[in-house]
TrEMBL record:
Residue span, Glycosyltransferase 2-like domain: 6-127
Keyword annotations of the record: Transferase
Protein name: Glycosyl transferase family 2
Gene Ontology molecular function: hexosyltransferase activity
InterPro entries registered for this protein in UniProt: Glyco_trans_2-like, Nucleotide-diphossugar_trans
Cited CDD domains: GT_2_like_d
SUPFAM superfamilies listed in its UniProt record: Nucleotide-diphospho-sugar transferases
Length: 319
């Protein structure tokens, strides 16, 4: 059915790492390998992984980075490292390799890999295994002790998962990285590691939307643990609104960051984008350079919008 390669970015994760790795080891789908890229941990992370490695029959691989890369680059470079090793080992089965991201502090549901991979195979049959495909799911938000705070990340954040076209994805990331699976065709599109990327999962989403397909599965596959050490965590919709009202200048910086990300995407992929996608990416990359009227016109013309009326009113006010 395929081999699933799980890329985990670790950094001082001793508090929850054992629980996360054990949840993967207890998966109903067994053809997986876990690749852990340690970004310079100073706690017991390496010792915990060594113990797990010894028990997992060669399915856990530990790589310690020479220098700290940061979470986004650690994940994306991890994908390329894993890909180079798996292709060299079995080039004839390259298209049967699938990739998942994994945080160090969550807990996966036992059927997470199995359910996601079944959907992947179903949609590859629909769209073709040769096209990039990314699948992502919902997640249960929990506290640090795994008590459920909210049963749906996407409903909690009022995110419209029905809008997965490229213009919407360039303006708003809807993916939770730790729920993502993507195929070998998408991995091949990761030709250049970006410098202006905002998040690793966002870049994967852009590749799926630009060159293939994105699919959302409306059910949770993991317990998304919230605690004081989260690099990127959950915030409910009302906290989102309050934060943006209080920091309008900061939100304008976010829009500039979105445009910079689109600009780098255009520079890397303009020769392989279809004409309509090229026009969309180019328009987004230059959005913040336009005058007051043109910025708003471009958003409405191309669909550079967010989820829901409140977010879009705020967007058009901030631009």
């Amino acid at each position: 059915m395929g081999k699933v390669h799980i890329i985990m970015a670790a950094y001082n994760g001793a508090a929850y790492l054992t629980e996360q790795i054990m949840s993967i080891r207890q998966s109903t789908f067994t053809e997986w390998e876990l690749w852990i890229f340690d970004d310079g941990s100073l706690d017991e992370t390496e010792d915990i992984i060594s113990r797990q490695e010894a028990e997992a029959n060669g399915r856990i691989h530990y790589i310690k980075n020479v220098k700290n890369k940061g979470v986004t680059l650690n994940f994306l470079e991890g994908v390329k490292t894993v890909s180079s090793q798996t292709v060299n080992n079995s080039p004839e089965n390259e298209s049967d390799n699938y990739y998942m991201f994994c945080d160090q502090d969550d807990v996966w549901m036992p059927d997470k890999i199995e359910k996601t991979l079944k959907a992947m195979k179903r949609y590859e049959k629909k769209y073709s295994q040769k096209l990039p495909l990314v699948i992502f799911t919902d997640a249960m938000i929990t506290d640090e002790k795994l008590n459920v705070i909210n049963p749906s990340f996407h409903k909690s954040n009022h995110l419209n998962t029905g809008k997965l076209d490229l213009p919407h994805i360039m303006m708003e990331n809807k993916l939770i990285g730790c729920t993502v699976m993507f195929n070998a065709a998408l991995e091949k599109k990761l030709t250049v590691l970006p410098k202006q990327v905002r998040y690793h999962d966002w870049w994967i989403g852009l590749l799926g939307a630009a060159f293939g397909h994105m699919v959302y599965l409306p059910f949770p596959t993991l317990y998304y643990r919230q605690h004081g050490g989260n690099v990127v965590g959950n915030q409910d919709f009302y906290a989102y609104v309050r934060k943006r009202i209080a920091a309008l200048k900061e939100q304008k910086k976010v829009l500039y960051a979105n445009a910079s990300q689109a600009k780098e995407f255009y520079e890397i992929y303009r020769d392989s984008l279809s004409e309509d996608k090229k026009m969309q990416v180019y328009a987004m990359s230059n959005l913040m350079e336009k005058n007051w009227f043109c910025k708003r016109y471009q958003c409405l013309r191309f669909g550079f919008l967010k989820s829901g009326l409140v977010r879009n009113i705020a967007l058009l006010l901030i631009l």
